[in-house]
Every structure is written in structure tokens, then in C-alpha cells.
Amino acid sequence: MNTTIQSMFHSLQKVQKVSSPALSAGKVINGKVAELLPKNRAIVDIGGKQVHARLETSLTKGQNYLFQVQPGKEPIHLKVLANQPGGDETVSLQKWMQSHGMKANNQTLAFAKMLMDSRIPFNAQELKQAFSMLQSSKSPQTVAVLKEMFEKQLPIRPSVFHALTTSKQTQLQTLFNQLSKGGGPFQLASRASTLLSSIVASDSNGSVQQAANQKLMNEAQANQSQSFRVLQRAGVFPSTQSPGSFRSNVLQQGQNSIIGNLSGSKSAQQNLFQGMQKLSVSSFSRSGEQPVIKDMNQMLPLTATHRQGQGTRGVLPKNGVDFSAETAEKIQNLFRQQLPLSGKETQKLSQWMGQFNRMFTSGGESRPQALLQSFVENHRQLMTQGTFQKLTAPMSGTERSSIEKVINQIPFEAMKFSPNSRAATSEDAIRMMQAAMKKIHQTLETQLPPSLQKTLTEWTVLTEKVSPLPLQERLLLQVRAFQQMSGLDDEAILRQNNSQPEPSMKTGLLALLGEGQTPKAEAARNLLHFFNSMQMTASQETAQSLQFSLQFPGQLLEARKDIHVNVEGKKNEDGTIDPNHCHILFYLDLENLKETVIDLQVRNRGVHVTVFNEAEQLPEVAGSFETKLKNGLENAGYSLASMQVKAGRGESRVEEHKQTPSINFQGVDFRV
């Protein structure tokens, strides 16, 4: 980013990127005595936070000192390292460094003093590690990276340093290009291969048909059924077919192809592929089930000649055939139906719906007080988290308004079952609520469980090569693919579930490291460093707020550089960002509009949009897409409150437009 745009992007962030320093035993930090208390106690200002401390010597109020945290419980026990006349903490710092075997030359003392002046805590071992990297590194980013490591309380290790340095010296899109140079390095149909092909266009990863066949075979051999379940929910497979019969026949046909290969008449790859083309599913023995599926074309109707209810017209050619548009549309429709519901939200909804049935399907007698209170509280939480808005967002305007009105009325109707209530819920009101609940239930039935979401994304990425999505949906798909398949959440999954995470690009990159000093291994190592940096610096949390800094390859928008996104907002009761009140910043470096910052402020689900850019033609471009943005926000359950276009220096060039929609750059709609 250039200096002006970069400063603007960071200044627009509302959550300060500082957290209270961890004052563990042995840490050294600069502090100011704010108040003196009896019994050698004091209030010390450390990094903007006032702490109650126990002191070993008399100090002067308002003076700065260099402290070291001593072992012990609350209050924190602070020891003054040296009580220099005039409060010269630099002399104290130099003496402390020398006493711990560190050379206090110009470079090391300047770095330690920078930490001290910034009131960033450190200990002797950390400082020694930092000095070693400071003296050996040739990167111009060395001091800034080391300061960030201390500031964010990251481990002071060479691996962390290399990860952060890599992320500051290169772009994600450059690393992906290097990785794909000379052909994709990953196994066909793996998540790493699918993600790479979605970011960097390449013909080297095989056809869609080959990838689909290979993926089904891989899962059958691993006794897994994720793809089968996703494709069945999409309507590609009949609902009566069982995963067991599907798997057994896939394995049988694969075995037949291997046996055929022993004759030596064809290569293993050709035999396996042709064998999969001729896959057959045994006849169903139970009455009422679907007829025999004769081959792969009919089991997975991918070819353009396939039509439901018709047989296939021969086996696939050796080079494979892409999905039919009909099959791709089924998978894409299932992808479109998925709502951004967390596992906790789904669980809370299920509990709330069960309580609703107990409340409104019995007679007119009063309900247990505990049930009534729990139902109303669950309803309040779902309202506060915006869960109901997510459920109604895909509905048409009239239907959405009607359903939302009924949902808002439900707790008032429930309170009529209170023992102290003299009012009664009418039959008409109950019928309206039950109709609304039926619609909610139908919407939830289209949702896949979290365990299948990544698999759906994989298959949707494959369909893009046959039936391209609209640009707005393609952006959503590519961002979701990067989030779900990169492996940035592998360690978090391992910690939370104590189970091995699913294969990802990160696991694929780790495997490539075994190739030694090849260009592919070096590209994999650099990309791993970048991923590790993103994991360590992506989120920041305070008691009341959350902040996420995300970075995506520029290829997703055909941008010149990586896409930077900053999301921050108040915490919900479940610890997530409140979607009704949040702040989103985009940094884009586009081919025509160049550097652009988009500032989205959400207040009570009203979106205030401000665009910063130097291009003279931007006001006209922005104004021509107003209807698209308005409709897009409404479909997502939001409304456009205002829109402004400003020069990069901050001067407004377009007056604020109340209730004006859409901003579209290179055909891309940005929606909350």
C-alpha cells in the first residue's frame, strides 16, 4: 500500500491493536507510578492499564521506573531494577542487560529501549533471541517484525520470525503462482489441488470428470461417504440409494480395473479411469427403490448427453467429459441455500423449535414456568444474534416481512401462558405461528451439517469449470474455499475436537517439504510461512470486542495485489461478532481503479458505505450500481443507510445519498 492509503486503512480501524501486556514473572517493563498506597503498595500505569502492585522500595509519584515482575500472586510484585536519579530508565536498562550477559551496543540498546519506551514487556531469554535474529537478518523489516512479535506476545523464535517476515515481503498471489508453476504439485481430487485450481487457472490438474471419479474412489477406499451425502442432498443421486451399496460397488469396480491392469495391456492410470467409467451399481433388492444404475455416467450424471430417466450413451472418452450443466446447477443451488449459521446457532434453533412445539401444541392450560422462561430467553438470544434475520434473508420481500412480524410476536403470545396472565392466545395466532415455524423448518432442512460444508464447497468449485457462477457468487465461493481448504484452522480444530483435522492445502504443503531443495518445496515452505503468519496475527480480542484481519490472494478479484479485510465489532453473548453492529474494511488494489479502501459500518443492520479512491470517474461508476447494492444488502437482511465516495485524502466528492445502493468494482458487489 502507498503511505496515504495505508495510513487511512489503519486509522479507520476502531479497535486499537494493543492488548494488556502479560505480566508474568521475570518480565521487564517500563511503568509510571500513578498513586502511592499504604504498606508499600501503589497503582502503576503499565501500557495504558493501571495495576495494583506491591513494591520493594519507596518511589516517587508521577515518576517512570523500569520494573521486573517477581514471582507471586495478586497483587503483582514489582521490583525496581535501579533507582537512578532523575529517573533515567535507559541507564537502568543497560545495567540490567549487562548483568544478564547481553552486549549493550548501539543496535541492541536501541531495540531494547524501543520496547521499553513502548511499554512492551520482555524477559532476558526473549531479548537474547531477538538480538540474535536482529544481528543475523538482512531484511529491512527485521525491527518492525521483532517489535510486532513482542507486542502481540508471540513466541520469540526463528520460525515465527521467518513466517512474519515472509508475509511482509511477498504477496499470497505470488506464492500461489510460484507453487503452480510447471503444473499442480498435489494429488488429483485433493483439497489442496481443488483450492489451487480455483485460484490459479491451470489445465494440468485433469478434467472435472477425472477429479470427480478420483474423489469418489478415494472416499470409498477410506470408508467415507461425504461426497455421496452431499450429491444426494443436491438431487444428483436418488434419495433411496444407500451409501453402503454405492461404496461397495465403487470398490468392486476399482478392483476389477486393477485386475485388468495385470494383463499389461494398458497403463494403470488408463485402466483405473476406464474402470471407473464403467462402474455399475447392483440392483436394489427391496421393492420401491430405484432401478439399476448401469455405469458411472448414470451414477454421477456428469455428461451433457445425460438426462434424468435415460440410460447413458456409452462410456466416457479417455480424456474425460465435464459435468453437465444440469448437474452443476443442482450442486450450485445447494451451495446457494446454505446460510451462515454457526453450530451453536443451529443447536439453539433446534432447542427453541422444540420448546415452541411444547408451548403451542398443547391445550390452553398454563405452561411450566421454567419452560416459559427458557423459551423466551432462547428467543431473545436468537433475535440478538441476528439468527432469525439469516433465516428470512432468502425469502421474498412480502413473505420475509410477514414471517418476521410473526416471529417478533411469538414471545408475547408465549407470555399469555403465564399463570398470572388473563389473556389467551387465539387459534388464528397459533395457526400463523405454526405456518411461520413450518417455513423455518423447511429452510433448516436445506442446511447441511458443518461436517459436510467443506465437501460441498469442493464440489461447487468443480462445477465452476462447467457452469460459471455470477461474479458475486464466485467471489463468495472462492473466499469460502480459501477459508475452508487452506488449513488455517487445522490447529484450532485439533485443539477443540481433539481429533485429526481433514486434509487441507496446509497438509499438502507439509508433504511437499520432503522433496528437499526443489523449487516446489521452496514455494511450499514460503507459503507455509505465510499461512503461519496469518494464523498468528489474524485475530485480536478485548473484553468487549473482536477484531479479525484477513488476507486473500489477489487472483480472487483479478486484483494487482492481495486483498486485505479487517472485521471488528462488539462481542455477542456467545463470543462472536455482533452482525447488527460491526465494522468492515476492504483494501483493494484493482487493475483500473488502483488502490481503494471501502469502509462499511453496520448499525442496527443499516450499512453506511464510504469509498476512498483517487479515480475521478469513481462517482459515476458507483452511482450506476446503486440498485444492485441495495437489493444485495436487502437479500442479506440489511439495508443501505448511506453511501459516500471520497478522495484518498478524505475530501468528499459525492454527497451522502440516503438509501442509495450498490458499489460494484470490475463487476463485483460487496455485501455484508
From TrEMBL:
Top-level taxon: Bacteria
Organism of origin: Salimicrobium halophilum
Name of the molecule in the record: Hook-length control protein FliK
